[in-house]
């Protein structure tokens, strides 16, 4: 799962690297448009991705035939939400101008955003099928599919952005279109494994293509809080990002570059989060809670160790890392200086990210999604209010805003750790309700 999520990070990283070869405005626009796309689909992605835990719980309980039925319910959710997502895209396209971005940036952000939204169905389907294979303990399938997707995406995006090898020169729209095409290709790779004869027979795939009220109710009961949690977290982060970009193109480009390096930490940790969710869900389904402590220890050991090494690198090489994205035109010095200061904050909160993602993976796998939803929503909303005050009311500089964001992550890590150390999420009667359809 770490390799799989790292492949996704590499894809986004190279997309923005290609944008940097045009100018700083394209880097900032790709970040703004990309994060707004994620916010637009975050609620449904949060619901559908909870298939990891639901499938793992059925798998642990020995209900193999119910596992692929979860996939079918996820595809139905992805299909039924398309009219709503079209309405969201129509309205969200105005958000960039409302946030005070320059007209040239607004135009580029809209181009990137609308192309990604046109492929939102494929993104949600890919999320569901990846969650399924993780839930049945087949993460190698996810890795293989994502690696093939990246292998298609990187050269295709290059060709579509710059008009190489006879392809049209589409600029930032080409970066988004390359992502959509690679997503469709990744789904095709998944289908090869999904309809494999051995897999079909073991999991009764042929009998799974129908509406299942019991599974869908359980899916939504546990997944809806997860969807709200992801949506509010993503929405407040996106609004913070857009507010920060209102400082100017220099500040927006610096943030885009810093978050590009942040992905090297955050995205692999998402892989660990998914793996922990799957393993905890499996033991919940099997009624074997004695193994959860081993999963927790292993998860923290891997995540903290990885983030610690990366955090040291972010501090030591902060200037060199910024200069990787030096643009061919304009004064990159101001961007590099601000970004180098922000890299220190990044190195501070990478360990908090590790704590948050392992702790939330454990709690999500055990079905403690309502507590996660309430806590995450409260902390992120407080963060957003503080950012509005810092940026718009008090008119403080970008570093004050950045360090407020760092403090929020540190606080969330401490709260999640407190919940994990308690026993509420382990209570037998609560786990029995989690498994009920």
How would you characterize this protein structure?
It holds the Pfam family MatE. Its main location: membrane. Keywords: Antiport, Cell membrane, Ion transport, Membrane, Transmembrane, Transmembrane helix, Transport. The protein is built from 19 helices and no strands. The protein has one domain (2-435). The mean pLDDT is 89. Helix 3 packs parallel to helix 8 (120-135). Helices cover 83% and strands 0% of the residues. With 437 residues, it is mainly α.
Strand content: under 5%
Order of helices and strands: HHHHHHHHHHHHHHHHHHH
Task: Give the fraction of residues assigned to helices.
Answer: over 70%
Low-pLDDT windows of residues:
none
- The Cα radius of gyration reads 21 Å
Secondary structure elements and pairings:
Blueprint: H1 2-20, H2 24-49, H3 51-61, H4 67-80, H5 82-92, H6 95-98, H7 103-118, H8 120-135, H9 139-162, H10 172-194, H11 197-203, H12 213-245, H13 249-286, H14 292-316, H15 318-323, H16 333-365, H17 369-393, H18 398-421, H19 428-435
What can be said about this structure in brief?
One of its GO terms (biological process) is monoatomic ion transport. InterPro entries: MATE_fam, MATE_MdtK, MdtK-like. By secondary structure, this protein is mainly alpha-helical.
